[in-house]
Structure formats: structure tokens, C-alpha cells
Amino acid sequence: MLVSLFRNYEGWESSVVKPDLNIDFHTHIISEEFLNLAEKYGDDRWPVLEKTCDCGANIMIKGNKFREITDQTWDAEKRLSDMDKEGIDIQVLSPIPVTFSYWAGPEQGLEMARFQNDFIASVTREHPNRFIGLATVPLQDVDSAIKEMDRAVNELGLKGIEIGSNVNGKNLDDDSLERFFKAANDQEVPLFIHPWATLGKERMPRHNFMYMVGMPSETALAAGSIIMSGMLDRYPNLKLCFAHGGGSLPYLLPRMDKGWNVWPQIRKTEKPPSHYAKLLYYDSLVYDEDNLQFMIEKFGVDQIIAGSDYPFLLREAPSGEVVDRLSTLSDAEKGKILGLNALDFLNLNKEEYTKAVKEEFSTK
């Protein structure tokens, strides 16, 4: 049985067994001093941070409010306070997807990526036992993306890359992106795939459907493109994790298998799609025990990683709540999803991180 090494905290039910490590894999961060490339380049497509008060800001695009955010998005101390209240030992930090800016020119895209990677690296250096960082790369130019991936991982110490679900309308199996995935495979750099620039967005302005329908559909399309492409046969060391439980992918797999069987002319893989879906990773952000159970049946416990989408409104609070509620899971299985699978995905040492977090809390 896994027992908490660290502390009890408000919000945990007394019957919940605390895992060795509680890791929130899916969180987003932005610098309070976010660079203003719209002003620098005279192009209002760039996201701009406009402070509304000390405790919040708006992300603006083309003069319109894209998203309201709170200071939790940039303030590491606020994040740490929230983590302590909710029993989260480590957050994995990644950029906000709207900042990918793949539409920009290669040099400008690289400037945006380097700024964000430097910022995330600075936060992880300041709190190395509490934060793990993921980088972003300018996928509109594969050569620049590979170089920045190398810098981010080998110079800055970031542990993986967050990428978008498409690149200017090109699915992830587009030939132009192949060298990037080969490089990630060869260098064993894990990739977190997050929806952005969703399909059908012109039909989704009402009801906030971009977040509720567009993103899950976009994620399924991205995962399906990878699965059907044969990439996972070619690159066996490629580690990919899809946000939001893989979106609608788990439900679509039987239909994909059927298509693979009845249309042999489309096959690029040795085995049906459902086989490759079990090689991918997925965060647990599905809110509902039945949905999580369905994911486990489709993919297996070892492929699911707790993530909350902190600090946004659609987040799960606390991270892993749905995992705790699922009565069919053993304590050991919950421990995997709540922390250990994240370390496995990121190629990190469990004993090292457990010891580091334990030492962190022993000084408090």
C-alpha cells in the first residue's frame, strides 16, 4: 500500500490513501513580463498580456480578449500555496497553447519559443523540487524546432516539449514534420500534445464550444493521425502524451479499427489502431469516473497520467480527484496514475524525486 511520505492536508478524505508522489502533469504558465511581439513587429495576431490588476490579466489577440487569467498563471508563490493546499508535490509547467504562434515566421517563432523556455527554466531552477518544465518549439520550421528542442533539454534542463495538435492546419503526420518526430525519438524527448487552433472553429464561437467540443475533437484527430501514420512502428522510442484524456479518441477507436479492416488500401501500420493507442499516454482530465474507467479499459493504467489544466476554469481541483473517486483502482494503481506514470513518461527517476520532495517538506 502506498502511504504519504509528506503530509496530510485539507481537502483529502480520510479514506484516501496518499501516493508516494502527487504530480500534476498538466498545468500552464506564462511570464508576468510577457514579451510584446505585436508592438515589436506591428502584427496584432501575437498574443499580448494586458494586466487588469495585480491579481489578473487578459490575453489579447487582435485587440480582443482571448482569455482572462489570474496571477496564479505567473506567480510561482501563489502556485506553491495552491499546491500545498491541494496536496500536489510537483507541477509540470507548460506554455499556454495560444502562444505557440506557429503562423509566425521562423525567426519570430523562435524568439517566442526561446523567451518562454528561458522563463520556464528560471522557475524550475528557483524551485527544483516542486516544478518540472516543458518547452515549446517553433514547429513552423523543423530545423529551428529541432535546435530549440536540443537547447531546451540539454542546456536549460527542461524535461520534454509541449506541441500543438496541428501546425497551420497540417496534421501531425504531415511529411514536413517527420524529421522533428524522428529527432524526438532519437533523443528520447517526450512530447505533450495539446489541442490548439481547433478544427471547425468557425462553427464554435457560441456556447464556448471551442473548449467543450472543439478541443476534444481536435485531440482525437491529432492522436488518430499519429496512430494511422505508421510513425509508432518507425519510431519505437517516441513518447507522446495527449491532453484531456485523448479527447474523443477512446470512443472512436472501434470505428477506426473497423475502417482499418475494411479499407486495406489506407493501411500504413502493421496492426490495427487500437494496438497503437495503447502505446500512447493520456492525461486523466475527463472529470468522470465512468470515462476514466473506459480509458483504463482501452489503454491500461500505465498509460494514464494525472493532470488538472491548472489554473484555468475547466481544471480539475484537486488534480487527480477523479482518480481518487474510482473505486475499481487499487492503491498501487492510483499511485501510478497520480505520480509515478508522469515520472516514467518524462524519463525521470522515482527515488530521486521522492527523496527531493521529502527533503523539501522536512524543512518546512
TrEMBL record:
Signal peptide: none annotated. Pathway: Secondary metabolite metabolism; quinolate metabolism. Gene3D superfamilies: Metal-dependent hydrolases. This is 2-amino-3-carboxymuconate-6-semialdehyde decarboxylase. Belongs to the metallo-dependent hydrolases superfamily. ACMSD family. The keyword Metal-binding applies. It comes from Thalassobacillus devorans. Residues 23-348 form the Amidohydrolase-related domain. Monomer.
